[in-house]
Here is the input.
Amino acid sequence: MRFMIRRLIEEMVMGKKRKLRIPEDLVVGSVHESKNYGSMEIVEYRGCNDITITFLRSKGSRVATAKNIRGGTVRDTSAYVVPTKMNCGDLYKSNNYGVMEITECIDSSKVRVSFISTGYTTLTSPTAVRNGLVRDKSIPKANNFLKIGEVYPTKHSGDVKVINFLSAKEIEVYCLRDGITLITDSASIRKGRVLHSLSTTICNIGYHGDGPHLATESNLTYKRWKNIINRCYSSADPNHVKYYGDCSVCEEWLNFQNFADWFESNSFEGCQVDKDILFEGNKVYSPETCICVGKTDNIVKAHAGHFKMVNPQGELVEIYNMRAYCREHNLDHRRLCYVHSGEKYSHGGWTKYVEK
Here is the structure.
C-alpha cells in the first residue's frame, strides 16, 4: 500500500498519470453474482482493492476487492435477505415452548417469529430458530423446567404428559391412565396435584366422576359414599381392620355418580346402607347386594346371630336374633345367653345344643 502511494505521488510530481490496467472481468458495467445477495454491478474501478459495486436487488453500494467480487463473498449490509432455507410461513419447533411460525424475515441475522399456542411474537436469529432455542417470554420462568412431551407423575391421576403451553398460567396435559386432556398450571404438575373427575382422591381408589351429583361434604349422599370407601380401604378408619378388613366396593360404586344414582332412587329419611341383610356374610358393597334399611333394623342385624338350642321337648331349634326370639316366647334373654355360653346348664328346660 505504501509503495502504491509513493508511486502515485511521484507520478503527480512528475506530471505523469499512470493509466490503470483493468482486468477484462472487472470492467465498469460488468455484473457478478454473490452467493447470498444476488447480482452486483461494478460502477467504478480504482484498483484491485478499491472497486465500487452496486447490488441490483437492494440498490445498495459499497467498496470491495477483486478477490471478493470474483468469489461472490461480498456482503450487502443494507439488503433485505431471506436466510437460507427459511421463508415466511415456515413452522419450526422450539425445545420447550411448542411450534413457532416465521412471520417476517428482516435480514440475514434477524427474523420475527410467532408462537402458535400463545401468539407471543419476538425477534430472534435464524440459528436460534433452527436449534429450537427461542423462548416464549409470555410463559413465566417457573415453567422452564417443564418440557413438551415429558411425562410427570401425580398423586391421584397417574402420569401426565405435557402437550402444550397455552398461556402463562395454562398448560395442556394428557392423563395417560385415564385418557383425559385437561388444562392445569405448573405448580400442580410440579407437586403432583393434577386433578380431574377420574382422579382417585378417596383412598386412592374412589373418584368423583362426571355427573350432576355434587361431591362435597355438605352432600349427605357423598358423605355416605365416602364412609363406605373409608371402611373398606382406609387403614386409618378404626372399623377397617376389626370389621371391614376383607370387604370391598364393586367397580361401579367406586364412581360416586353411580352410587348417588342408586342411593337417591332407593333411600328414605334416616336410612342406612346395609350389605348383610339380603345376603348373609356378604363382603361386597354393590347395587345387587345392598339395601337401604332403617337405623333400628341395621342395629338389630348387627347384633343378631345364629344360635342352636334344645327346647324342653328335646327338639333342636335354630334361633336367629336371640333377643327377638326371647321376647316372642316369653323367655329371659340374659339367662338363655348364659346357657348358650355355658355359664348355666339350662333355663326353663332349654339347654345348649352340643354337636355329636
The chain has five domains: 2-71, 91-130, 141-191, 220-302, 304-352. The chain has a mean pLDDT of 83. Residues 220-233 form the longest helix (14 residues). Residues 91-130 form one domain.
